[in-house]
Amino acid sequence: MSDGKPCLIAVLGDQLSPDGAALRTGDKARDVVVMAEVREEATYTGHHKQKLALTFAAMRRFADELERDGWRVLYTKLTDAENAGSLVGEFARRAEEVGAEEVLTLAPGEWRLRETFDSAPIKIRQLPDDRFICSEKRFADWAKGRKELRMEWFYREMRRETGLLMEGDDPAGGTWNYDKENRKPAQPDLFREPAPTFRKDTLVQEVLDMVEAEFPDNFGTLEEFNWPVSRAQAERALEHFISHYLCDFGPYQDAMLEDDRLLYHSLLSSCLNLGLLTPREVCDAAEAAYRAGRAPIQSVEGFIRQILGWREYVRGIYFLEGPDYTSRNALNHKRDLPWFYWSAETDMACMKAAIAQTRDLAYAHHIQRLMVTGNFALLAGIDPRQVQDWYLAVYIDAYEWVEAPNTAGMSQFADGGVIASKPYISSGAYIDKMSDYCGGCAYAVTAKDGENSCPFNSLYWHFIDRHRARFEGNARMKLVYRNWDKQDEATREAKLKTAEAILAKLDAGARI
Ligand code: FAD
Ligand code: DLZ
Ligand code: SF4
Questions:
Q1: Which residue of 210, 396, 482, 489 is surrounded by the most CB atoms within 10 Å?
Q2: 402 lines ligand 1 (CB under 6 A)
Q3: How far is CA 13 from CA 27, 106, 165, in A?
Q4: Distance between CA atoms of 129 and 173, rounded to whole angstroms?
Q5: The overall pTM is greater than 0.90
Q6: pLDDT, tens digit, for every residue of 355-364?
Q7: Of 272, 306, 368, 378, which is best to mutate to test ligand 1, by the most ligand atoms within 8 angstroms of its C-beta?
Q8: Beta bridge pairs of residue 170
């Protein structure tokens, strides 16, 4: 890079941050930015149509912004005739065009691409992605020598290190974690400020049309597309969340309502994952609301924990555990993913609601992902690779570094307990407590067995029974096994028989 030759600075579709290390290192007067919409990235999974549209629209907008900022940008659109079809192919083509010998980029958020870049015929220098609060090295240092990794301990260290929500050496409000005060069910609130809307200008409309034309069979619909595609729109989304929803975020973050698909969630994950917002500025904005007395500690702490804690933690785990993480299957689950995950054609009201909103919005909130669709897949023994493929495809914010640990680890226990100390499973009672789905369901949540009983009820005990050897000794599950063993044999038999019938229906591709 020093002999006067230009360097190519590659900005990938989820690296849309003007102050990432690659752009910071580059020289506007000499270097050239390369950005490319390519089939290889558009098809490594069956991305939701809205995810494709958001990626391409945000990339185009960011390229415009870089040009306005004085960069020379070589941008390839998906349908350009000369498009090489892959990132490495485009880098090579552009390098030849400008006489560059080296490509500089932020290390991608996926092992797949890191390995591809390492073995590319052109030299690609991958700089550590410094858009996170905790670097990969920092996480590895923290993890070194620990017998067990737990998010809570990591999170407290991050609080101390960043000073976020700290009063000297103590946590603000006197407690590190306010989860116990949260977890409330919600009621519909007709007076709540509506979610912000983002104008579909010509650029966005062009991309939406292109996605519909090029990917007509991909999962999802585009009608309700309403995602921030630029830094300015992302700032507006953040501001709106802080002003109108943060206050109630904590208590209702686990709640689910049939007619309120978003509740008090921020919908900021796509902005964060694309790089339109930094995690630090989002945490700072939430903390400022607390300090100004505009939001209570339990909401602000709950929100900051998701970003400073969970988001940084799962990324650390993904890169610490290595490329084989996604192929683990600790529970030896082998069943195929039921077709209704793609069609929403099921009589289970909770599953139907979560999948239908996923199709229409490319969004479902954490508890829908974990305790509805994830819970069902785990109880039913679905192959975790297929479950991961689904989560990677269907959500607006899906990138492997964050999707895989959440799905394989937190949701499916496929990593054998690296992320979760016990499986996240529940019967229908939890869903009934946290949502209003069960009232309108074809199944009876109070029925424990029989054809009309809630499938989560019998599948729950089937899971407990079939995984006794693994979980019986887990201190956090002792009570559950005691409860199972207390039930008389006929009751247990009836539950297991009901579960077997449901699993047989799944295997036969029948509707449930
Ligand atoms: P909010 O509820 O408003 O939370 C605020 C922010 O905290 C989010 O924007 C997100 O950046 C962060 N956050 C919250 N929970 C997590 C978490 N568990 N891990 C990482 N960050 C978190 N999140 C993704 O960004 N991409 C994924 O591909 C993804 N896949 C998931 C798969 C499963 C099975 C599960 C259970 C969770 C997954 N999550 C994923 C985490 C979480 O569900 C989403 O981040 C969240 O629902 C996004 O909506 P929001 O922006 O409204 O979040
Ligand atoms: C997700 C995505 C898609 C759909 N398309 C592109 C693309 O055409 N060009 C690009 O540079 N990046 C794209 N991306 C984002 C990459 O897949 C992402 O950088 C990796 O998944 C690593 O996180
Ligand atoms: Fe879901 Fe069971 Fe409730 Fe139906 S009864 S909505 S399947 S939890």
A1: 396
A2: yes
A3: 21, 11, 32
A4: 33
A5: yes
A6: 999 999 999 9
A7: 306
A8: 167
